[in-house]
Amino acid sequence: MSWQVLIQSDVVPYEPITRLLAASDCCLHWWRDAEPPRDIDYSVIDGIYSYGHFPVTRELMERCGRLKIVSNFGVGCDHIDQNGARALGIPVGNTPGVLDAATADLTWALLLAAGRNIVTGDHFARGPGFQKYDAAVLLGQQVTGATLGIIGLGRIGYQVGRRAIGFDMKILYHNRTRNASAEADLGARYAGLDELLQQSDFVALNCPLTPETTGLIGARELALMKPTAVIANAARGPVWDQEALLTALRAGHLHAAATDVTYPEPLPRDHPLLAEERLVVLPHLGSATQQTRDAMSQMSVTNLLAGLKGQDVPYRIA
Ligand code: 8YV
Predict the structure, then answer these.
(1) How far apart are CA 129 and CA 37, in angstroms?
(2) What is the C-alpha to C-alpha distance for residues 164 and 66, in angstroms, rounded to an integer?
(3) Is 35 an active-site residue?
(4) Which residue has the CA at smallest separation from atom 4 of ligand 1?
(5) H-state helical runs in 266-309
(6) pTM for this structure?
(7) Distance between CA 112 and CA 230 in Å, rounded?
(8) pLDDT of 56-91, one tens digit each?
(9) Is the beta carbon of 74 within 6 A of some atom in ligand 1?
(10) Which of 115, 159, 280, 302 has a CA between 20 and 30 Å from the CA of residue 170?
(11) Ligand 1 pocket, 237 CB below 6 A?
């Protein structure tokens, strides 16, 4: 018996995924373009494997006649209609835990890069302008001893906080709910959003994208921040208002910002954010280490196969 699986991806997926799927009883039907493929029989689709962030709508799930599972390569499932899946009784699997360390490391790479002018410094060191060493150029913001505000103290935010202990930082956090064990472990203090923004020298966005977090950081919130502050987004682009961020950076309000995520992703090549020197931009590298990608591949294929067989999905978000 072979399972019919719709795999959404406009790039060649990470090799271990196709290897694991090839070793299973899955017959793959590719969705490679913006629009769903027309040449497949949706009535026989047993599973959807979501790679990248193509939308998985309720309509698509309803169209797949025998759907038993939606398996996502990644922890964030904002592109999947989870309420729709619940209503239809279709389990959704994701890959929590295995990417916390890699994403927390990258959050720190963003904070440090923006705070210590790493990218502008790299460009300057290679360019024609660097003729004499000058101790007064490219002064950054001190990380050690500063206040870190973590917005979203889930698994990844917690790991960001753990790393801050090594920098002797004072930690504030803002979250849907208080996290007593994290407060005890990290010495973190819960703060309202405005207070966190006003008091933090470094702000890390590590929350999932939900209706509540969409546009969480807009012009008003950016204006509350210290003019020397640094903000990094390792969550999802729509958590902040990109236009408001650009305006704040251009006005010299904030030391710098860094982001791993944008909307759309990628940005059009002529987007003004890409020309902003005080913004570090990465192409969604949060969990992009070989070790983490291997674990994500294994986990997402395990979820897929369990769902196809009607077994409990080991890592289930909906
Ligand atoms: C993935 C991510 O790279 O897990 C997530 O939510 O954003 C990243 O770890 C991505 O989802 C895979 O496409």
Answers:
(1) 52
(2) 47
(3) no
(4) 74
(5) 290-308
(6) 0.97
(7) 9
(8) 999 999 999 899 999 999 999 999 999 999 999 999
(9) yes
(10) 280
(11) no
